[in-house]
Specification:
Strand order of the largest sheet: 1-2-3-12-7-10
Order of helices and strands: EHEHEEEEEEEEEEEHEEE
Bound molecules: fe (ii) ion
Structural class: mainly beta
Shape: globular
Radius of gyration: 15 Å
Helix content: under 10%
Largest sheet: 6 strands, antiparallel
Length: about 180
């Protein structure tokens, strides 16, 4: 049986960081995949890299697939972005502040990732499906499209630490980006 465990390395994360040259932990987050019923667990490292809080890579779902995240421990943001006519044109951007016990629904079509702005591990559970027959089922499951985030080096906004507080700054690689809807 395939191991359900995977790590997202700093090497992979360079694709989507505000400052790809910045030094940080070797592993940014840890994943244990169980799929829709058993659930998937993700554990984020705490801290910043080049001023940016540690986050997940970010992806859109392939096809008609929504997902719900539940925060099991820690605090941070779940961000969602909706595309217009192209990957670099964002028509809606939501930053949802979350803490232990909160649930966030990710509707079909919204790119998403989570950010750990707390001092502890951020731990979530989600119900996205996993097909263990896929080659990279655990690390990069087929339901997720990571390419737009790779191409544009992250989401439409980066979340950086300023005077100990999170602050969102625009990613200059996007052509158009709306103001943030804070939830
Ligand atoms: Fe997802």
């Amino acid at each position: 049986m395939k191991s359900p465990f995977a790590e997202r390395s700093s090497k992979e994360m360079k694709d989507v960081l505000m400052d790809p040259k910045a030094d940080g932990p070797k592993v940014h987050y840890y994943m244990i995949r169980g799929g829709k019923d058993k659930k998937n667990i993700t554990v984020w490292e705490s801290g910043t890299i080049g001023g940016e809080y540690i986050k997940s890579y970010g992806h859109y779902h392939v096809g008609d697939l929504s997902e719900t995240y539940e925060v099991l421990a820690g605090e941070g943001y779940v961000i969602l972005q909706k595309r217009g006519n192209s990957d670099d044109e964002i028509i809606e951007f939501r930053a949802v502040k979350v803490k232990t016990g909160d649930k966030v629904f990710i509707p079909t079509g919204y790119g998403h990732l989570a950010i750990n702005t707390g001092k502890t591990w951020l731990v979530t559970s989600d119900d996205s499906p996993v097909d263990f027959g896929e080659k990279k089922a655990v690390s990069m499951p087929g339901h997720a499209d990571y390419a737009p985030f790779k191409k544009l080096h992250g989401a439409a906004y980066y979340c950086v630490e300023e005077n100990g507080q999170p602050k969102f700054v625009k990613n200059p690689n996007y052509k158009s980006v709306p103001p943030i809807e804070f939830k």
